[in-house]
Amino acid sequence: MTDNRPEAKRDQSEARHHWINEDLVIIPMQANSAEEAIAQLGARLEAAGRVKATWAQAAIEREKTFATGLPTPEVGVAIPHTDVDHVLQEAIAVGVLQEPVAFGEMGNPDNTVPVKIVCALAVAQSELLVTLLQQLVEMFQNPGVLTAIANAQTPSEIVELFEHHIQI
Amino acid sequence: MAGLEKRVLVACGTAIATATVVAQKVKDIAKEAGVPVQVVQCKAAEVRGRISTFNPDFIVATTPLPKDLGIPVFNGVAFLSGIGMDDLKAKIIAQLKGEE
Question: What is the DSSP secondary-structure string of A101-130?
Fold first, then answer.
């Protein structure tokens, strides 16, 4: 019961940033390509005032050079993002594709990954992107989480899963 | 050459994000293996320059790099995806311990 426990206190803090809400979740998402998927999530982020209108095209362009598809033991994931200049307020938009689309594999562009879950990351500070990425990677490696996201029936289930795992 | 510090370069695309995640994993592995390590991060475009200034023993990258760098390059994406992580960890431990 000491006061010097900022980590523990922060979990209860009202100031905690909400990265995601139901308006930022698309299930099921229908897209024929990675570009279409990114554009749809970008439109949601823009409508929510989280990114500028330039975000989607910038993320699509970045994806061509630095692919973000991650093969995981459960369900393929992609984490498209782009420069902080295009971001207004931190957010994650999530789409669960009805049929997987091919994303380039991160670090291995000759390969593609069939991606079912697309997490568009809008981050306005690069240090924050590091923390977010660490927490996302742990979340994705947590057995059952990606399957739970892929099988979610409502946006609120997905919001709850992210709110539980992303504690920034 | 026990006790000699190993130098590891971690490279990613544009931001510092994936390199930071991977660099932390490499530090954790080195600590577990009891090998002192110095880890430096850079962008893919800076790799050649960093090889000459930092003189790393090997590279872990989350982005494609040229094949002619002259030192071992490992794909660090396994630390992000979880696929092949044990295999990559074993390879890095072997490099850290210098398996000649």
Answer: EEEEETTEEEEEEEEEEEEEEE-SSHHHHH
Closest among B88, B51, B87 to B68, alpha carbons compared: B51
Residue B83 to residue A72, Cβ atoms within 8 A:
yes
C-alpha distances in angstroms, B12 versus A116, B40, B63, B74, B77? 24, 11, 5, 12, 10
| Alpha-carbon span B42 to B13, nearest angstrom | 9
Catalogue all structural domains in chain B, each as residue range(s) with its CATH number: 6-97 (3.40.50.2300)
Determine the residue of chain B that is closest to A130 in CA distance. B17
Does the structure's ipTM exceed the value 0.85? no
pTM (predicted TM-score): 0.84
- State the fold for domain A18-165: Mannitol-specific EII; Chain A (3.40.930)
Percent of the residues in chain B that have a pLDDT greater than 70, as a whole number: 93
